[in-house]
Amino acid sequence: MTTPDKQRSRAGADVLLTALRRNAGAMTWGTVLMGMYQAGETAFPIALGLIVEHTLRDRSLGSLALSIAALAVIITTVSLSWRFGMRILQKANTTEAHRWRVQVAACGLQPVARDVDLKSGEVLTIATEDADQTADIIEVVPLLISSLVAVLIAAVALGMASVHLGLLVIVGTIAILSILSVMSRRIGTSTREQQARVARAGAKVADLIVGLRPLHGFGGNHAAFLSYRKVSTEAKSQAITVARVNGAYAGAALALNALLAAAVTLTAGWLAFDGRITIGELVMAVGLAQFIMEPLRLFSEMPKYVMIARASAERMALVLAAPAVMTPGTERLSAGGDLEIDSVRYGSLRELKFHVSAGEFVAIAAYQPRAAADLTSILAMNVPPDAYEGVVRVGGRETGELSIEAVREHLLVNPYDGEIFAGTLRTNIDPAGAGRMISEAVEASMLTDVVALHREGLDHGVRDRGANLSGGQRQRLSLARALAADADILVLRDPTTAVDAVTEQLIARNIAKLRRNRTTIVITSSPALLDVADRVLVLDGGVITADDTHRNLLTADENYRLAVAR
C-alpha cells in the first residue's frame, strides 16, 4: 500500500521532472557555457604550470608570448561563458518560477476547489517561496555538471603528472560527497518542516487581519496575538534549527574541501621533492589544489539545494496533485430560469424544500445563523452535490449535471463578507472591465456618497481588504459588485447589516427596483428587505416553516414578529 508520504514524494519528483523537461534547451546551453567557464578556470593553473615548465626549459620569448596569448584566451572564455551562461539559467529560473506561481494560483482560483487542508496563507507561501525554490533546480543541475567537469579535468591533469595525485582527487571527491549527501537529507527534512511552520504563521496573520476589528470589539485581540506568537515562535525555532543544520553542512563542506586541497598540495610537494614530478607540474598541482576548492564547494552544496528544491516541490504537489472536491458535469443552461431546493439535508438543514420562480424576489428569514451559512454554501457550490442529500435544480437542471462555469454564469451568490481587493472602486465593482451597469449598481447600493467624497470618483484607490473603507462602505461596495454582475439568479446574504436604518430602507427599495423581473433571493432578517420581497420563507430548524408576505407574517406569526421586528 502506498503511504501519503510516498505519494507526495513521487508527486514532488514529478514536479521537478516537469521543470527540467520544460527547460531542457536552456539548461543544455547553460551547462555548456558553465562547463566552458569551469574548464577555463581549471585550464588557468594548468597553463601557468606549462608556462613555468617551458620558460625554464626553452627560455624563449616566442613561447612566452604564445603562453600569454593563451592566458588571454582563457580569461576571455571564462568571463564571457560565465556571463552568458548565468544569464540563460537565471532567465529560465525566473520564468519557471513564474509558471509555477501561476499554476498554483490557478488551482486556488479555479471553479472546482481542491481537496487540500491548507489555509490561504499557506497556499500563498507555496505560490511564492516554494515556487522559487523549486525553480532553483534549473540552475542547480547545470552548476552540478559543470563543477563535475572541473573536478574531472583537474583529476585528469594531475593524473598525467602523477597517478597518485589524480587518484587522490577522485577518491577525496567521492568521500566528500558521500559524507555531505547524508547530511543533506536532514536539511531537506528540516527545511520542509520550516516551510510548513512559516506557512502556518502566514495563515494565522491573514486570519488576524481579517478579524482584527471584531477581535478589538469583544476584547479578544490579546488572546489572538498570543496565539500568533506561539505559532511564530515555533517557526522561529525551526528556522534556527535549519540554520544550525545548514551551518554544520557548510562548515563540514569547507573543512573537507580544505583538507583535500591541503592533501593535494602536500602530496605534490613530496613528489617534487622526491623528483617524481617537475617544478612546472608542482606549480600546476599547487594551483589546481587552490582552484579545486571552488568547484568542490559548488559541487558539495548541490545536494543541499536539491533537497530544498525537492521539499518545496513536494509542498507544491499538495496543491497541484490534490484531487478536486467534485467532478462537475458538462451541461449548460439557457438564460433566465428558476431555483429549486428539493429535500436537502446538510449540516443544520433538514429536508429543506422550496421553489423560487423565474423573475421572483424571495426573502429567506433564517432564525439560526448556521442554517443561513449552510444554505449559502450549497447555493455557492462550495459543497459538492454528493456531500449532501437531496437535489438543487437551476433552470430545471440538477447542479450535478451542470458545469461549474455554467452554474456561475447564471447563479451568483454574494456572501455577507464579500472580499474587497486592492485597486479602485471601479475595479472592485467591475473586475472584468465589462463596463455594464456600474452607475446603476452604485446608485442602488447607495455607494454614491463614497464616490462623491473623492475627487477621483470611481477611480479612488482602495487598499487590500478595503482597509481604507468603513465596514458599511465595504459592504455596499460588495453589494454594488454583485448587482453590477446582473446575474439571472442573484443570492444575497445579509447585504445591509453594516448600514444605518435609513440607508437600509433605500437600498432595499433600490434592489427591488433594479432586480425587477430577475430572480433574486435575499437571506436576511432585515425588515426593510423582507418588506420589499414578493414573499418571505421562514427557515427554522432546518426546514421552511412559513411562506407568506412580510406583513402577513408580522400579523399572524408571533415568533416571526419577535425575530425580525426592530
UniProtKB/TrEMBL annotation:
A Pfam entry, by short name: ABC_tran
GO molecular function: ATP binding
Subcellular location: Cell membrane
Keyword Transmembrane: yes
UniProt keyword annotation of Transmembrane present: yes
PROSITE patterns cross-referenced by the UniProt entry: ABC_TM1F, ABC_TRANSPORTER_1, ABC_TRANSPORTER_2
Domain spans labelled ABC transporter: 325-566
Record's bilayer topology term: Multi-pass membrane protein
Coiled coil, from the record: none
TM helices/strands, residue ranges: 31-52, 64-82, 140-159, 165-183, 248-273
Primary site of residence: membrane
Domain ABC transmembrane type-1, chain residue ranges per copy: 29-302
UniProt keyword list: ATP-binding, Membrane, Nucleotide-binding, Transmembrane, Transmembrane helix
Protein's UniProt name: ABC transporter ATP-binding protein
